[in-house]
Design a protein that fits this description.
The chain is mainly alpha-helical. The chain has a domain of 102 residues. It is built from 11 helices and 5 strands, in the order αββααααβββαααααα. The strands form 2 sheets. Strands 3-5-4 form a 3-stranded mixed β-sheet. β4 and β5 form a beta hairpin. The protein is globular, with a radius of gyration of 19 Å. Bound molecules: zinc ion. Zinc ion (ZN) binds next to α7 and α9.
Length: 240
């Protein structure tokens, strides 16, 4: 199956733009702590839909963006950014040079809130991941997922066919939920979207096997033994 030029984010926002189309106008948050925050209704509505997923309320997200423009961001998150680039260098060692990521683009636009993806050799990460979580484990999971997409693109046609068949069987058995990798949101019910495409299943499983193996094992404990061989086939696919 063709890969999209840009990998969908872990938390899809494209649909939210459609919901909000045509409703943009400027409002001012007048609460004392956020005097300088100006947001559009559509921007706030976009964040509000993540309310149950993020560790701070939508207005605080707006304040984070306003208080942390790019120059301040690079001062405040210099060490975390260096951790991310070092991790990318490390992951690059696991892929061929033609697949290596050579540019990290941190998007400071609120329109890209919670987005991460790839285009060519560039990896995009929304600054919101740094500002909301400021956590190496979460960024490691995010990067592992993204490199899962790289490894998926490296599969030969036989393995791609195998991945597609496993994805079909998980769809038939309604077992996608086992492979949602939601630790970056702190809420596995909403993280990841393995049901979207075999590449998303691969990337989420690739991340869980490397960063949450015990949790994955426990999730499988409560699944009927009839399905265990299928689950093990998914693990084997991403473990290679
Ligand atoms: Zn993905």
């Amino acid at each position: 199956m063709p890969m999209p030029v840009r990998t969908p984010s872990h938390l899809i926002v494209a649909a939210l733009f459609l919901l909000c189309a045509g409703c943009a106008s400027t409002v001012v948050d007048s609460s004392p702590a956020h005097d300088r925050v100006r947001v559009t209704i559509s921007q706030r509505a976009q964040i509000e839909l993540y309310d149950s997923l993020i560790p701070v309320p939508p207005d605080s997200v707006m304040a984070l963006y306003n208080e942390c423009p790019p120059d301040e961001f690079h001062k405040r998150y210099r060490q975390l950014t260096e951790f991310v680039t070092a991790l990318i260098d490390s992951f690059n060692q696991t892929v061929g040079s033609s697949y290596a990521i050579d540019t990290l683009h941190i998007s400071h636009s609120i329109e890209n809130f919670a987005e991460a993806g790839q285009s060519g050799k560039t990896l995009f990460i929304s600054s919101s991941y740094f500002m909301l979580f400021n956590n190496r484990g979460i960024l490691r999971s995010l990067l592992t997922h993204e490199f899962g997409h790289v490894h998926y693109r490296m599969l030969d046609s036989a393995s791609l066919g195998h991945a597609a068949r496993l994805w079909d069987r998980l769809k038939e058995t309604a077992l996608f939920y086992l492979f949602r990798d939601g630790e970056y949101s702190g809420n596995a019910r909403f993280g990841g979207h393995p049901e979207d495409h075999p590449s998303e299943l691969f990337a989420s499983a690739y991340n869980l096997v490397r960063n949450r193996p015990e949790e994955l094992h426990v999730r499988f404990t409560y699944v009927s033994s009839v399905h265990k061989p299928l689950l093990q086939e998914v693990i084997a696919l991403v473990a290679d």
